[in-house]
Design goal:
InterPro entries: FAD/NAD-bd_sf. The chain is built from eleven helices and 19 strands. The protein is an alpha/beta fold. It has three domains: 199 residues, 3-Layer(bba) Sandwich (FAD/NAD(P)-binding domain); 89 residues, Alpha-Beta Complex (Polyamine Oxidase, Chain A, domain 2); 87 residues, Polyamine Oxidase, Chain A, domain 2, CATH 3.90.660. The protein binds flavin-adenine dinucleotide. The site of flavin-adenine dinucleotide (FAD) has 35 residues, from α1, β14 and α11.
Length: 403
């Protein structure tokens, strides 16, 4: 089949790489570079990013890693060990040790919660915040986790999503960092697509998607190309806006917003390669120091620390100032330099659909959606994208067989 892919973000490129084995594929990307919110920006020798924090939520064992291997990408992903620690009262604790920081009554409550969550024995209709709120520290820790991983507060996160995430965590484990950062993944996807004779067109903005009974068309200012199938890597809302198909039939997906601050430090802030969750910060939910995995992500003699925070109010300046105050407290007298502050919202958010508000990937036999507006259930960030891509690729390959 001839397949057109609109958008060269992680979702679009992963779909293209998988389909390029058996189909003719063409990617249309509006920017001069591919990778969307998952690629590097070189700034003074530091590998900053267009979005992601150089982390893959289930590391070398999750959905994304599996699909990368399946399409022939050689990406080395180093699993974090420990997955994450939690800074409470200035000290870093493993998850299991947090239970000892509260009184006996709260400890029993928290242990019961953890056991119920592991067994899926919880009310699916409530939020994660409601589930945790009877133990103050548990709610703070929950907020740090959802803020870091989903750019949502615990109260904004549906319990149903948390149950699925817990299942994935027990199946695949915690995060990992790809060597070369986000761009390490994107470069390999591009290599595979080109090896399979796929075509990637940059600076090629798509203005229209026309779906007819027997064909589909991708239209720009100076082109109108015919395809058997179109895969859109744009948000469901934008895809609907430029196409002749009604996509959002029920509730609109709700985007999640966030702020990332990149910090240079000679001394380093943490010794491990996992996440440092910061439940006691005013705004920062967590941070990582990716140079503990790959020193090439910063100039010689430096570490790169990336912090993330949910955007809680619409006053972005105030949100950033509170984040900077947190950083000052976290560094506690150590030398550091703020490299870059990025806020993510509107057309360039953390997620086009916050977890629990994603739409389905399959619109009809000719039009499919991939990306973070259509993640699989319980799929954190790029793992959720990979789950959606898997579904689309299976559907298209089945369609090809039956036609
Ligand atoms: C601050 C922050 C931190 C994050 N941290 C992580 C993390 O550590 N780990 C993780 O797994 N995820 C993380 N994420 C989320 C992850 O970066 C995104 O979910 C993912 O990159 C989105 O990929 P996508 O393919 O859905 O969309 P995009 O990357 O947005 O790709 C869509 C592409 O379509 C192109 N496009 C748009 N309109 C048109 C048009 N009309 N014509 C042609 N092309 C068009 C865009 O230019 C873009 O390249 C983070 C996100 C942010 C913002």
């Amino acid at each position: 089949m001839r397949i057109g892919i609109v958008g060269g973000g992680l979702g679009g490129l992963l779909t293209t790489a998988l389909l390029s084995k058996n189909h003719d594929v063409v990617v249309f990307e509006k920017l001069p570079f591919v990778g969307g919110r998952f690629t590097n920006i070189n700034y003074k020798g530091f590998q900053l990013t267009t979005g992601a924090l150089h982390m893959i939520p289930h590391g070398n064992d999750g959905y994304l890693a599996k699909l990368l291997r399946e399409c022939g990408c050689n990406v080395k992903i180093i699993n974090s060990n420990p997955d994450g620690l939690f800074r409470v009262n200035g000290k870093d604790y493993a998850y299991k040790d947090l239970f000892n920081l509260v009184g006996l009554k709260d400890k029993l409550k928290a242990l019961k919660m953890a056991a119920n969550l592991k067994m899926g024995n919880v009310d699916k209709s409530i939020s994660f915040g409601e589930f945790l709120e009877s133990v103050e520290l548990a709610l703070k820790v929950g907020n740090a986790f959802t803020g870091w991983a989903l750019s949502l507060t615990a109260y904004e996160t549906p319990m149903e999503e948390i149950i699925e995430m817990a299942k994935n965590y027990h199946k695949f484990g915690g995060p990992g960092v790809p060597i070369g950062g986000c761009k390490g993944v994107i470069d390999e996807l591009v290599r595979v697509i080109k090896n399979n004779n796929g075509v990637i067109k940059v600076e090629c903005e798509v203005k229209g998607i026309e779906i007819e009974d027997d064909k589909a068309y991708i239209i720009g200012e100076e082109f109108n190309e015919e395809f058997d199938v179109v895969v859109s890597n744009l948000s469901p809302k934008l895809t609907e806006k430029i196409s002749n198909v009604k996509i959002i039939k029920g509730k609109e997906p709700k985007p999640s917003k966030g702020i990332k601050i990149c910090v240079a430090t000679k001394e380093g802030l943490i010794k491990h390669n996992g996440v440092l969750f910061t439940p006691e910060c005013e705004r920062i939910n967590g941070l990582n120091q990716v140079t503990n995995v790959d020193i090439s992500l910063a100039p010689e003699g430096y570490h790169l620390v990336m912090t993330h925070q949910t955007q809680l109010t619409n006053n972005v300046k105030k949100e950033i100032d509170l984040g900077l105050e947190d950083i000052e407290n976290l560094f506690n007298g150590k030398d550091y330099e703020i490299l870059h502050i990025q806020s993510y919202r509107d057309e360039w958010p953390v997620n086009h659909a916050s977890n629990g508000t994603d739409l389905d990937n399959v619109i009809n036999d000719r039009l499919y959606l991939v990306g973070d507006g259509v993640k699989g259930k319980g799929g954190i960030e790029v793992e959720g994208i990979a789950m959606g891509v898997m579904k689309v690729v299976e559907h298209i390959n089945l369609l090809n067989k039956t036609n």
